[in-house]
């Protein structure tokens, strides 16, 4: 019975990988590759992929060239226009490919390029599928230090999209053997918030807060500024007229990215490197310098390394905003608290907290802070400095500053065993 069900759900090979690659190229893709659903590297995405299309047996990754010259322009509206036009092109190309496959008996689903995402899952994993991961596995490139997929020929100047199909193919692709990243560190130097570290670490919050200011990261903050301002003068003291105009433009013409410097400066790949290798100094002068010297506001969270980085660059203005990530549940809190951790505030802090969450969610957890790093563990581990017992809903409100620690304690929803000042120390290590 099970076997016959599987046979119904899985198409036999209708087309070879080479034939599909030809179809992709004829439809307008600049490159394409294929991955089987069972690939181990796709395991973290598999549940979400099968949720979108339970019949998925293979994934087609397609790449479309983005105009490097436009992306390297210091004019943000030119860069955004280039991105939006590729947002328009890629799904059209993907649908054209799927249509051709349909004619040959292969069924499937085109996934969204970037948006719409599943905002029901915010602030967690709102994207259904990581096109970057699929593209890497499909041999379209390797991750560079800037965390973008670097195509061997086109470098990071590509848009990526995935198509899920119900057929198994005769053969699949695999990650490229040589990483095109030349370790030039230009992405490190061009990042206005210092998000890319030399050692490969990445400060997600620093990039997210600035680059996505006009997307979901800042929209909530903007709405709250409108709602909480007592009058027009107060609103204008928080949100500049130019910023209100940006919101109008984002909502009308499509969202704008505040920064793509790490993509713009990257010389990796056969084509981009032709502009870099012959005269590296000239490349830095023409491409990197104008971005670093561009006078612009940069959105940062108070007291972070990103704020320090911006204040050290006389061409940039630090605009302090609120954290775009707010947990809505204990799961969100435990999954995302390391993103909110601010190492700048954890100098000389060594702390082990045991949490006992009660009420709607019953859960035990340990959070350790040591050497400017935060670790979240299930259950209770090691000897605690503080034991926090809290009603789950109250804890979420407390982290979001919707209720004070004092109020939570006197209403009996929060109990601490140990020095209560350590609670403040812990909270001071979280970005707001
Ligand atoms: S997009 Fe901008 S802020 Fe984000 S990592 Fe790249 S250079 Fe830094
Ligand atoms: S800019 Fe240089 S270091 Fe950064 S990803 Fe590109 S090649 Fe690698």
Q: How does this structure look, described?
A:
This protein is globular. The protein is of the alpha+beta class and about 425 residues long. Helix 2 packs across helix 5. A hairpin with a 4-residue loop joins strand 9 and strand 10. Residues about 1-10 have low confidence and may be disordered. The strands form four sheets. It has a five-stranded mixed beta sheet. The chain has a four-stranded antiparallel beta sheet with strand order 1-2-6-3, sandwiched between helices. About 40% of the residues lie in helices and about 15% in strands. The chain has three domains: about 1-165, NADH Oxidase (3-Layer(aba) Sandwich), CATH 3.40.109; about 185-320, no CATH class; about 330-430, Nonspecific Lipid-transfer Protein, Chain A (2-Layer Sandwich), CATH 3.30.1050.10. Bound molecules: iron/sulfur cluster (SF4) (2 copies).
Provide a short characterization of the protein structure.
With 432 residues, this protein is an alpha+beta fold. The chain has 18 helices and 13 strands.
